Please model this.
Amino acid sequence: MIQSIFRQSGELVTILRNREKTNPFRSLKMLVFLSFFLLAVGAMLVFNIVLKHSYTDKSMEEKLQLVQNQCSILGNQILANQFTIDTMQSNLNVEIDQLANVWDGRILVMDSTYKIVKDTYTIDQNNYMIYDEVVHVMRGEKDKNIRMLDDYAEIIVPIVNSEKVTNGVMIAMVSLKDIDDTNVYIARQANILIILFAVLACVAAFIIANISVKDIKILNEQILTLNQGHLESLQVKSRFNELTRLTDSFNVLLNKMQVLEDSRQEFVSNVSHELKTPITSMKVLADSLLMQEEVPNEVYREFMTDIVEEIDRENKIITDLLTLVKMDKKAAGLNIEPVNINALLELLLKRIKPLAAKRNIEVVFESFREVIGEVDEVKISLAFSNLIENAVKYNEDGGSVHVSLNADHKFFYVKVQDNGVGIPEECQAQVFERFYRVDKARSRETGGTGLGLAITRNAILMHKGAIKLYSEPGEGTTFTVRIPLKYVS
Amino acid sequence: MKGMRKWLGMILCMLLVLLAGCGQTGQQATTQESLAKDQIYLYYVNRDQTNVVKEKYTLKERGELAAQVKELVGRLSGAATTAEYQASVPEGISYTSCNAEHHHGRIELMFNVAYSSVDAESLLFFKTCVVKTLLQLPQVNSVTLSLTDLASSDPETATVSENFDQDSFTMSFGGENGYKQKGAIILYFANEAGDALKEYRKSVEISNTTSLDRLVVESLIEGPDRDGYVRTVPKDTTIRNISVKDGICYVDLSDEFYNTDNSLKNDIIVYSIVNSLAELPTVSKVQFLKNGEKQQYFRETMEFDGIFERNLDLIEEDTTE
Model:
């Protein structure tokens, strides 16, 4: 019961976590869709509003200007008629009525005593006008007064004679309904269009979003298939440059992985083989001993010596392997200290002297200066000792080994030169590989594991150094190592 | 929960707006009603001399009209110029006398005016304030101002009289009022006895599409909605055509006008229309048509093809106090 609850709550947590992972607002598709859609709609709305305002403002401005002009003309005529308008034979009267009609509005004319001599509505005719703004205009305090209300505009203009004296005032009220109606009409059209285009934008946004992420989706599926082991490398070439580059990079990575995988397999196979070889020898020796009857002790002793040799060899191989594996981990920290390289090399040469002396091999150390380098003493010793050992091992009797040490302000250089058998050109590239031996037979004799140079190279690389090889078969081999004086992590 | 709060907030806002609106109209109502029995408004000129302002005032004189007039004119003249208002009767205009005989509630005031020292605005506001103040007296329906030019040497032309009633001044023009104007028209219906015409004032709303001549006749057809008046035109009459040209109004009415029985006298019926139309500033004469043609007789007895002018004799004398 409790188990099941825990199991359920565990699932719940997983489900919740999964749902969080698929937050829609973290989707590229959603981003593209929303951006496109909102931008499109936003742009349309702004455009619509700006245009509408422009139209409205311009239209009103023009209309008011037109009205003022007409008022001005009318004013002159009224002056000419000396403010007698509404009489029997008056054309002016008809004209004013018609004008008010055209404007869908109202016109009032006042003389200098504020009497309304003409009202197109009739109702206020012959009354006196009591209105602040009219007084202001009549007195010349303002040269006009314009008031805007919802559907109409009220314009008060003075009627001025040729001597700039105000003889009266005209009020024109014009309907703005036509501008309003046009506005409404345009607004309606615009709204329809906006809705239409919004829908189109939505669809387009959706399509674009899909296209953008489609290739990513395909890529994802391919990678999943890859994971399941059904593919060697990614095939799809996307229509987008970015994704093509991504695919290529991924393929490079895959390749690297493949190479690593291959080399791992090879390594495992090599290791098994190397480890098995001494054991096979031991078995052969032991079996042959057992098979014989009445074996004298000297024969036993001889065979035991051989078996011990094999055990030593096996031990060495295992030790070297462990060293290599530890270095490989890279988590292995480097113990960097300032080390006197001269002393280190001298010590290594001292150690090799007995082995060299046995075969009359001359060992020379040449140092141009005192070198103190920031290195890991153990690993560097290992690296150089391998080189020096090889120089002796792969040498003729009576040959020589020449070790030199130099430095500039950035690096120190160690050269290990021998005049031994040399390495054929076609093998030179492979010598640093694990378990690689140019001449298997010879190295077995000298007790080699095939791992020495691999270890050396690893150690040098860990110090961000470099190692180079020059060799002529029959003449000798020179290894040159360069290591930075100051350790750079 | 958040949604709920939003809705509540909106409802609250709307209520506040409504209350504010109501409050305003309420306030307006109270200022109208706050005049006590003997209180009227005195009209003065505002500080900028662009409009009139009013102040409450309690009449001291209660009895005679002439005395009240004198008191009010005195107040309107003597007011010192304060920060808010100026005297309505300016220097340059002096009150001489008044004639308060009850002719239809009309009183006449006489003033001497030195036109050279009075500008157009002062003159305007003087007329406005005096008339509007005096019209508040219950006995007064119209005010005639007779202004004597002190500078004139010719006695014939020195005095100019102008008649004013409550519709003579167009106030508070600026605003919605300007476009859709509330105004009043004067109609003449028959009195209850059916022997005279009685003046009937009707409030109307005018817009740019209103033609007043049509409105007058339509209102006559609609009939009175107050007691004491009798309709003159049959209620199912329709206007075939109506237009005004050169001061003559041509009225073409439907058959119902001619055929429906009407107990009123022909004079009363016809002149109710003529007098009502003649009240319009644009109309001085009326011509009747039937189907576009002149009718010779109205109801067989009255000559109908001529041009009619206003007949003041038929109008009942206003005997209201």
